[in-house]
Amino acid sequence: MKLTMLGTGHAGVTKCYNTCFILEDAGKYFLVDAGGGNTLLKQLQRVNISLDNIHDIFITHRHLDHLTGALWILRRLFSQIKSGRSNGEYRFYAHDEVIRLLLQFSEGLFPESASDCIGKGIDFIEVRDQETRKIIGHDVTFFDIHSTKARQFGFRMDLDGKKDKEFPETSAEQYVRENQRCLLSSGSSADPCCREDRKSVKTERNPDSNGSGRRLVCFGDEPCTEETMHNAEGCTWMLHEAFCLYEDRDRYKPYEKHHSTVKDACQAAEKLGIRNLVLYHTEDDDLPSRKKRYTKEGEQYFSGNLYVPEDLETLELG
Q: How far is CA 248 from CA 184, 220, 243, 259, 307, in A?
């Protein structure tokens, strides 16, 4: 499984593309979000992935920097289907609010003939909280992140065939009860849990050192919270937004936007027992030094493998 970041920035970036990415396995592709414009098509060209071969697309929520790029995908697909050049069925997954918007855009922005493709080559598939679907050969379970802004879904994916039902949600609830003092404490550097304690929690949480039962979780573009953290149960990879450095919080005001800092994301991942943390949805004011700066701050709070990818960077998930 490979993860390719097509974009890594927040809504207002100009030096990189908005956050969206592709999961690839055995020549099959799963696109998550689409950014805010037709730069998506350029990014796909630059990583040598044909839009024709992306048959599964998930849109987390209705914000422009996640949804609007999907309109350029639809424009291309409508044209190809009408001309008889399509490469099979294309599936757009989203919760009901986003599905309604996609339908409205399809009817209002494209020729009337384009809407004939809905259900005949292009399917809009509504997903519900804790619903599991098979996508590119893997179980993907969608979940509501309970956003206080626009309704938003995240997802978790099994990476090597282990089913979600083997990780009952009640085990996460038990973990919270047994480790209350360690979980998602408000972050000061003087954390009540010592680093040795956090490492022992991680070993207990995810003991699959041989790589079996690996899972990935994505919380969209808002922080993991106590209400949603159970969705990370058993996961070895976590994709989490980090709007800026903690030291820059007064400048960027991430908390007012319902976002988090590098420190916040890393502390949450450490306490959840995550082994591999990918940070995205960031500011871009000093893009050349972003990886170095974010890694330096993050390593103070996270003892696993920390990734701060650039646009078009690919990570091997195993």
A: 20, 22, 10, 13, 20
CA 228 to chain centre: 14
- Beta-carbon contacts of 91 under 8 Å, excluding residues fewer than 6 positions away, are 55, 56, 57, 122, 123, 125
Fold exhibited by the domain 2-316: Metallo-beta-lactamase; Chain A (3.60.15)
Give the Cα separation of 283 and 66 in Å (integer).
16
CB atoms within 10 A of CB 120: 11
Give the model's pLDDT for residue 2.
97
Is the Cβ–Cβ distance between 35 and 65 less than 8 Å?
yes
Domain boundaries, the chain: 2-316
pLDDT in tens, 123-151: 999 999 999 999 999 999 999 999 989 99
Residue 285: what are its φ and ψ, rounded to 5°?
A: -70, -30
pLDDT band at 161 (very low <50, low <70, confident <90, very high): low
Alpha carbon distance 23, 138 (integer Å): 11
**Kind and range of the H or E element at 173?**
helix 169-178
pLDDT (tens digit per residue) in 48-87: 999 999 999 999 999 999 999 999 999 999 999 988 888 8
Bridge partners of 279, per DSSP, are: 240
pLDDT at 194: 34
The dihedral over CA atoms of 116, 118, 120, 122, expressed in degrees to the nearest 10, equals 140
Q: Give the integer Cα–Cα distance in Å for 93 and 150.
A: 17
Strand 305-307 and strand 276-280: pairing? parallel
pLDDT band at 210 (very low <50, low <70, confident <90, very high): very low
Q: What is the pLDDT of residue 177?
A: 37
